[in-house]
Specification:
Blueprint: H1 2-20, E1 23-30, E2 39-46, E3 49-57, E4 62-68, E5 73-79, E6 82-89, E7 92-98, E8 103-106, H2 109-140, H3 145-173, H4 179-187, H5 191-200, H6 203-206, H7 209-221, H8 240-247
Parallel strand pairs: 1-7
Antiparallel strand pairs: 1-4, 2-3, 2-5, 5-6, 7-8
Helix pairs in contact: 2-3, 3-4, 3-5
């Protein structure tokens, strides 16, 4: 009888421990019929390699991830072996929306922060792309090519400075959470920018494994521009056109 009581207490303790554990819940919707029946994966970096955290199937435009939250971390949503979008796995009810116009994550503090930042970054990238369109239009309008380059190079420099300030400011404001290492490694684009951020960073950020490895590669190579993010090192976002190629069935699109 005593043994039975001990077992009962043990089961109650285990149930209490499970109930006290934080968990994540991710609800996804997609209006893209191509995704129906596809297997999606949540992948995170573990020991410098991508590891599956969770998986599910898209059924009638809906998908669902849930589990016990060991630690808050940046993950990437994959379809097969292609990364679609980043997200933060954290406590709360997280929503993913995938349609022909956008891919967005919302519903939790860090995801809201991340996607507000990514929206601003995308706006700046679009402004840079628009300069190419203006170049062509100005040529058609008969503007001297040297004058076009003078005007557009000046505007490009302003946009580049805004992007630099956006990325640096975001990293510095988020030194205390997982977003700073992710954005730093993915979007820091020059040695001066990297050195500027590291000069302001606390030790916890500097000693983060991904940050330390990235900073070492920067200082050793004296890079001018950061190389393309390595999929095995950190999940990364891909551009909308590539996502649409994937969703439209063009599997070999780069």
């Amino acid at each position: 009888m005593v043994k039975m009581k001990n077992l009962t207490y043990l089961f109650l303790l285990m149930a209490l421990m499970v109930s006290c554990s934080e968990s994540y819940v991710i609800q996804g919707t997609s209006s893209v019929s191509r995704l129906d029946g596809s297997k999606l994966y949540l992948k995170v970096v573990k020991d410098k390699k991508l590891s599956n955290l969770d998986s599910c199937e898209v059924v009638h435009g809906k998908f669902h991830f849930s589990g016990v939250l060991d630690t808050v971390q940046v993950a990437s949503l994959f379809m097969d072996d292609q990364s679609l979008m980043p997200l933060v796995v954290e406590k709360g009810d997280i929503s993913i929306t995938i349609d022909n116009g956008q891919q967005k994550v919302s519903g939790s503090p860090l995801n809201d922060l991340l996607y507000d930042f990514l929206d601003q970054h995308t706006q700046l990238q679009n402004q840079m792309v628009e300069l190419d369109h203006r170049y062509s239009q100005m040529l058609l309008d008969g503007v001297d090519e040297d004058e076009i380059e003078r005007i557009l190079n000046a505007e490009a420099a302003v946009i580049a400075q805004k992007e630099d300030s956006l990325v640096s400011g975001f990293v510095e404001e988020n030194f205390d959470n997982v977003l700073a290492p992710f954005v730093f490694v993915q979007m820091a684009t020059s040695v001066p920018q990297v050195e500027h951020i590291m000069s302001k960073a606390p030790d916890a950020f500097k000693n983060h494994p991904l940050v330390a490895e990235f900073y070492k590669s920067v200082t050793e190579s004296e890079m001018i521009e950061k190389p393309e993010p390595r999929e095995a090192t950190l999940p990364s976002e891909i551009d909308d056109a590539t996502i649409q190629d994937i969703l439209n069935g063009n599997e070999n699109a780069n």
